[in-house]
Amino acid sequence: MDIIILVEDKLDVNLIYSEVVEDSTGAVSLFVGTTRDNYEGKKVIRLEYEAFKPMAEKEIKKICQAIREKWKVENIAFHHRLGVVPVGEASIVIAISSEHRTECLEAVQFGIDTLKKSVPIWKKELYSDGVPEWKSNKECPWTKQEEQKSIKRKVLNSAATECIQIKASNSELDKRISAFMERKRAESDVFNIQEFCHRLPLDGSENSCARTEAVLISRKDSKSHLKVSRCVNMWGPQTHSEVPALSSATTQLKPTPAIQERLQNMEKHLGLVKEQPIPLDVYGRLKALEDRILHLESISPEYFNGSLNVQPNNRDDEDMMAKIDQRMEELRRKLL
Question: Which positions are annotated as binding substrate (predicted)?
């Protein structure tokens, strides 16, 4: 039998003992928790207990079930007092009876430890100085979490001063950041003047304008101020297709040898030969080629402007030869 009672009246230990003792039991173990008159050097006048009874009774019932699973006991009684408990009076009584003393002794210890850990009963201590204080049980998991957080805060706050590199105030840090930004901005301005205006910053007037003073100097192999380099990736992400393979269902339509050759050349050029099986249907093969072209244009619009699709331009070749001749003539003059 399990007896669970939460009352505001004074607890009678003899009555609770009589509730659990039977002729068939050979041992009864009692735990009685009382109110002491001091705590950490302060004089305690009384304790006040509060609880949400339905939840507390439910949790105590779980403790009784756990005890019966672990030990062979006969009767279990949990009596807890609520409200005001003066000094010297019992606030909790746990009584357990069993055939042998070992079971009831171990069960009582388990019962009080688990009750302190999980049952929602709150305790407030009133001291002689008139300042009450709510107390938490050290067995509670949330108490341990708070202790760990407190230890972490102490460790962070007690960092060695020699490990701190910057000890300036917030205003001083803001001033340093502003000075750093101004210095970097000035360096960027000097570099831009040297790069685009081709003069030292102190050579010109303060009322000059970069829009009018900037000079375009063509770079080698480029028509703009900046050097431009183009490369053709023969292998890489641009040559891999993300288009899923089409169905390999065959049809009666077969291309002529001329069309077959032209399709094979395009498939080889776009990298479709080794990536996935080529459908035998002419229209399917054309659709795969179109999807491949659209994919390449979407990830790299300049792909088809590279050297793979550059049309021969005789005028560009003539200009290039003229530049080469001019360069060779300049080298001859320097050597002579």
Answer: 100-101, 116, 123-125
